[in-house]
Amino acid sequence: LQISPGSSSKAISALDDNDMVFRTRVNDGIKAQALAKLAQAIGYKRVATTYVNNAYGESLNESFIENFEAIGGIVSAAVPHELGQASYISELRDASEDGPAALITIAYPDSGTTLLRAAAAG
Fold this sequence. Notes:
Blueprint: E1 2-4, E2 21-23, H1 28-42, E3 46-52, H2 55-70, E4 74-81, H3 89-96, E5 102-106, H4 109-121
Parallel strand pairs: 1-2, 3-4, 3-5
C-alpha cells in the first residue's frame, strides 16, 4: 500500500496498481480545470502560459490549455522555462509576443517568484 501526499500527476489515476496507490491531493487535471474556469470568470479570453519544463509543468500546462480552449479561450503561446535561471526575460518576451491579456504561470516558488518579478517590472 502506498499513500502519496504530494503526487498530482493524472497518470496515477490510471496506474495498474490493484488499488494499492492512493493520494491525498487532487490531480493536475482538476487543478487545470479550476484554473481555466477562473481565467474565464475573470474575463480573460486570450492568455499565454509559461510552465516549468518537466513532467509536472508539461502535464499541468497541457491540461490547462485543453480546458481553457474547451470553454472558448485562446492560448496564444505556451513557453517552457527551466528552473534556477537568473532571468526569464526571454521567456516573458516569447509569451507576450502575440498580446495575451494574461500570463498563466506554472512554476515552483523560487523560479516563479523570479519570473513574476520580471513580468511586473516590464
